[in-house]
Specification:
The complex is a heterodimer of chains A (873) and B (108).
Chain A (H helix, E strand, L loop, with lengths): L9 H10 L3 H4 L1 H16 L1 H44 L1 H29 L11 E10 L2 E5 L6 H8 L3 E10 L3 E5 L2 E5 L2 E4 L3 H4 L4 E4 L10 E5 H8 L8 E4 L3 E9 L12 E4 L15 E6 L5 H5 L2 H17 L3 H6 L3 E8 H7 L12 H30 L3 H10 L3 H38 L11 H28 L2 H6 L9 H34 L9 E4 L2 H5 L3 H9 L4 E7 L8 E7 L8 E8 L3 H5 L3 E4 L12 E5 H7 L8 E3 L5 E8 L14 E5 L6 E6 L4 H15 L7 E3 H8 L1 H35 L1 H9 L4 H35 L10 H27 L3 H5 L3
Helix pairs in contact in A: 1-4, 3-4, 4-15, 5-13, 5-15, 5-25, 13-16, 13-25, 15-16, 18-25, 18-27, 18-28, 25-28, 27-28
Chain B lengths: L5 H13 L5 H12 L5 H13 L3 E8 L7 E7 L1 H18 L4 H4 L3
Helix pairs in contact in B: 1-2
The chains are: A alpha+beta (873), B alpha+beta (108).
């Protein structure tokens, strides 16, 4: 015998004991130790020691393998049972899964939408250093906020701001322009004059042509890819030429990639800035200016220098134009404040006048995010309720299993497996549903959303993981509850102890009902408001009014001839001309009332028209007269609107004079009733209508009620006779108006969808709650039946409880809905009333649906055989 | 009743042959004798656990020795089910090979 006693490592023994769950059953440690002693005898201490360790570790590994295999086997059997259960209760499974599916699908769609909104403009390489200049001004009592600056801003930016690395001015040409390629004509909507730095500031890949020289020469242009294809049928058109209104013939120097959908502006054609006819003015904001800051420069550094810049550059011109010094200007309450908007801010937060395109709103993101979470929560809670409710029917099965000796943890695992299985099935269905719905959703929202499985495999993994977690979370409560109850209590009928805490459930269902009521009310209000503003009297007759936007450019001197020709048709009632119309851009100017000082200048919007416009638009003269051929002095006349007259403050403005800045005096000959010529969100502002010396920009044609199609064809025919160059492009004023309200239209549709969703989920929740509650009272029902209660009696009794819930729900819902809708309506200057019938209708609708849902359960219960429920007494 | 795997069969036979003395260490030795393989401890206990769960064997605790660091030995005995399973396995094997002379399968 060796002298030393062999002591195997205690650490190893401890490890074995801890990790190997049933090592004790086989006395593994003991066996290994015994053999290790032999090894000690044979090969020595160290060998034995190491051998012991090795065997321990290997045993543990083997054990892991064992457990792993076992778990898979168990899982398979759980899944088998779960599937069997699913088939056995088809309807219940269907309802439950669809509830969860819809909840998840909605959630995902909303998240995709939010992701898209947040990603706007982020694709530019320098997006974190790009800022846009915004102006907040109050001139002559008229305040305006817009993200535009005068063209001359370049002077200031070049001289005084070393913090700027580069800047680019974008001047949008606001009308639709005709593009001609050989003899094919197209309309371009997004045409910009830009500085050569455009491609330095923004990341827009150039597909063909040289980026360095793309914008360096006058007489050239850069086309977007889609424009190139549209005009020429192919992409690489460098060197070809096109003729564009107002720009003349330009050669394509390069073709650039289209700006993606999630950009706050898009372009069809860009050309280099060209010197303008009139000397540039500091007081006319003509372009959008984007600044690329140097690294590590804070925007505040620039903003702090802006006030001085305004004084230095805008000031002198104020003196020239308005005879006011900058000090006098500010003293009288005027201001011009410049600020910087980060690029990331623009799409979601900027909704000023003259945005390049309609922007989104960050508030919607919050609303949708909250809604998404809410929907998910509700779907999960519904699921939990349904599972628990259904389990009432499975009590017998469970009881039997427990009696036979199912381990509690086994049961829990079984239920969890079922829950996760449901959850995963829902997840897959949700994905399928989304794939089906995405085209419609994209259509609605104008986006390009997609589930990027391929771009990001993690997405699938994340989704699967989330579903499993949801399955576990949603399934835990029922699983625990079900496995915890004592079988005896089933047979005694005193089960559902836990379910009895129904106050929580009641509250929950009330909330769901309240939410549905709120959603329906909101939908009704939004629809009502939309209808109201679309039908609202605009101060002129908007039906059957066509607008041809390129009339003056295309017809030129033939305007009158064309007009007369067109009027030959009895269905064409009036033809008039105007510089702008509802939905289009308008110019404005300060006017000075006669006899007042320069301080009292008032901002008027200006409209240049012909004589016929009054009748064409059917505006109403309430004082004086409109322009007339009889008065040659009308070239120096002006017609103002009611608001303008009010602002001027004269009792009778007819005959008085107002003057523009270049000392042109105009005599007021008439006042028209206010009509909407500008954004419908705002109050009507002063308007000055002046007779246009030249042909007006837009031609308005009023057609008769009938024969619309033939009238249009007639006009188009005539058009072709007069101009071969330009396409006949017209819009109806009504559709212009509808376009303005596109956001609201989408809101209405969204609310409708949400309502439907909310109602569906609420019904589900109600169903589950009703199921539980009636299961709870099954014994009571049995007894009552024995004593002779009829089915209808029972149904009435059982539904009584829900009426009180309904009332509570309504009490919660009505004030909330009223408050929310009031807040929303504040956007509009002209709004509809929130009316009582909306509340009533929605309450009735929800009540009806609730009762129907509940009665499915109560009727089923009332028909149940008392024997079954009282069997174990 | 499911068929025994070869592994299970070997273990059951080993336990049977050992009689009273069938505990971990001995089983391992017996298997080495019978098959020539020295099994890892880990493998042994996995199989023993399976056999226990399938009720082919039962275990009982024995005496502890200082050699084992104070742990009691665990002895295994065949149950009736185990015996039956073994019997069927043997039966099956006999039927499989009935009538085939040994020489046929020997290759040179």
């Amino acid at each position: 015998m060796k002298k030393k006693q062999f002591r195997p490592s205690r650490a190893a023994k401890w490890l074995l004991k801890k990790l190997y769950a049933y090592q004790d059953r086989h006395s593994i440690a003991g066996d290994i130790e015994e053999v290790s002693l032999d090894k000690y005898d044979e090969r020595g201490y160290i060998f034995a020691y190491i051998w012991f360790w090795m065997q321990t570790v290997i045993s543990i590994i083997q054990y892991m393998k064992f457990i792993f295999v076992r778990s898979i086997v168990m899982l398979k059997s759980y899944i088998k049972v779960a599937l069997r259960n699913l088939k056995k209760h088809k309807i219940y499974s269907l309802i439950n899964i669809s509830g969860l599916t819809i909840g998840i699908a909605s959630c995902i769609l909303i998240i995709l939408w939010i992701q898209d909104e947040l990603s706007y403009d982020m694709f530019h390489e320098n997006s974190d250093r790009i800022y846009r200049i915004a102006t907040d001004e109050n001139i002559g009592g008229q305040s305006s906020k817009h993200p535009a600056t005068p063209m001359n801003i370049s002077e200031a930016l070049n001289n005084d701001f070393p913090e700027i690395e580069k800047y680019v001015r974008l001047r949008k040409l606001w009308q639709d322009l005709t593009v001609v390629n050989n003899d094919r004509k197209f309309m371009a909507k997004y045409v910009f004059m830009v500085d050569t730095t455009f491609f330095d500031v923004f990341t827009v890949p150039i597909l063909h042509g040289d980026p360095g020289t793309a914008l360096s020469q006058q007489g050239t242009c850069v086309l977007s890819r889609s424009s190139a294809v549209k005009y020429f049928g192919e992409e690489n058109v460098v060197g070809k030429t096109i003729t564009v209104d107002r720009l003349g013939t330009v050669m394509v120097a390069a073709v650039a990639e289209d700006l993606p959908k999630n950009s706050h502006f898009h372009f069809d054609i860009i050309v280099p800035v060209r010197p303008s006819r009139r000397p540039p003015s500091w007081l006319f904001a003509l372009c959008h200016t984007y600044i690329l800051l140097k690294d590590n420069v804070s925007p505040d550094q620039l903003v702090s220098k802006f006030p001085d810049m305004v004084k230095k550059y805008y000031g002198p011109e104020m003196k020239d134009r308005w005879n006011t010094s900058y000090e006098e200007f500010t003293a009288s309450g005027g201001y011009i404040r410049l600020s910087l908007q980060p690029l990331s801010y623009v799409h979601l937060n900027s909704n000023l006048d003259f945005e390049l395109e309609q922007n989104g709103d960050v508030r919607y993101i919050y609303i949708f995010l909250v809604s998404a979470l809410f929907i998910l929560l509700i779907a999960c809670i519904n699921y939990m309720n349904l599972v628990t409710a259904k389990s009432a029917g499975r009590m017998k099965e469970i009881a039997v299993r427990k009696v036979v000796g199912s381990h509690k943890s086994l049961l829990i695992k079984q239920f969890l497996t079922e829950s996760v299985l449901f959850s995963l099935i829902s997840g897959v269905s949700a994905v399928i549903l989304i794939e089906l719905l995405i085209p419609y959703f994209n259509n609605l929202s104008g986006k390009q959303l997609e589930l990027g499985y391929f771009s990001n495999p993690f997405v699938i993994l994340l989704l699967a993981l989330t579903m499993i977690i949801i399955g576990i979370l949603a399934g835990i409560y029922p699983a625990l509850f079900l496995s915890a109850f004592k079988p005896v209590s089933l047979f005694k009928g005193t089960l559902t102890r836990g379910i009895k805490s129904s106050s929580l459930r009641n509250t929950f269902v009330s909330i769901q009902m309240a939410t549905s009521i709120i959603l329906i009310i909101c939908t009704l209000v939004v629809s009502q408001q939309l209808k109201y503003i679309l039908e609202r009297d605009l101060g002129f007759k908007k039906e059957n009014l066509l607008v041809i936007s390129n009339a003056s450019r295309s017809l030129g001197e033939n305007w009158d001839a064309f007009k007369n020709d067109v009027l030959q048709n009895p269905d064409i009632i009036h033809v008039g001309g105007s510089s702008s119309v509802l939905g289009e851009i308008l110019s404005s100017e300060v006017f000075y009332p006669e006899g007042k000082t320069a301080q009292d200048g008032i901002y008027f919007w200006r409209l240049f028209t012909d004589h016929e416009i009054l009748e064409t638009m059917q505006m109403e003269v309430i004082n004086g007269r409109f322009f007339s051929q009889e008065f040659s002095t009308d070239s120096r006349a002006v017609v103002i609107n009611e608001t303008g007259a009010e602002r001027l403050g004269w009792a009778d403005p007819i005959g008085k004079q107002i003057s523009m800045v270049n000392n042109v005096n105009l005599t007021i000959v008439g006042v028209v009733k206010d009509f909407h010529f500008h954004s419908l969100y705002k109050e009507i502002e002063p308007l000055a209508i002046i007779l246009n010396g030249r042909t007006p920009n837009l031609m308005l044609i009023r057609t008769g009620e009938r024969n619309l199609k033939s009238s249009l064809e007639f006009v188009e025919e005539k058009w072709k006779q007069y101009t071969s160059e330009s396409p006949f492009q017209y819009t109806f004023i009504e559709s212009n108006i509808e376009n303005i309200y596109r956001t609201e239209q989408s809101t209405k549709i969204l609310f409708s969808i949400f309502s439907a969703l909310g109602i569906f989920l609420a019904c589900m929740g109600l169903l589950s709650m009703a199921a539980i509650a009636t299961a709870h009272r099954i014994k009571e029902i049995g007894i009552r039946k024995v004593y002779g209660a009829s089915v209808s009696n029972l149904v009435l009794l059982l539904t009584k409880k829900y009426t009180s819930l309904l009332i509570i729900a309504n009490i919660m819902a009505w004030p909330t809905a009223w408050y929310i809708m009031n807040k929303w309506l504040e956007i509009f200057s002209y709004k509809t009333e929130i009316e009582i019938w909306m509340f009533v209708v929605s309450a009735v609708l929800i009540s009806l649906l609730s009762l129907i849902t509940v009665s499915t359960q109560t009727i089923k219960a009332s028909y149940s055989n008392p024997i079954d429920s009282l069997r174990y007494e | 009743m499911k068929k025994l795997t070869v592994n299970e069969e070997i273990f059951l036979v080993a336990i049977f042959r050992l009689g009273e003395d069938a505990y971990g260490v001995r089983i391992r030795e017996m298997i080495k004798e019978l098959t020539g393989e020295t099994l890892l401890f880990g493998t042994i206990y996995n199989t023993l656990e399976y056999l226990l769960r399938k009720n082919y064997v039962v275990s009982r605790k024995g005496e502890s020795t200082s050699r084992r660091g104070g742990n009691k030995k665990v002895y295994y005995t065949l149950t009736n089910d185990g015996k039956m399973a073994l019997d069927r396995a043997r039966d099956l094997k006999n039927r499989l090979w009935e009538g085939i002379p040994e020489a046929v399968l020997k290759t040179d």
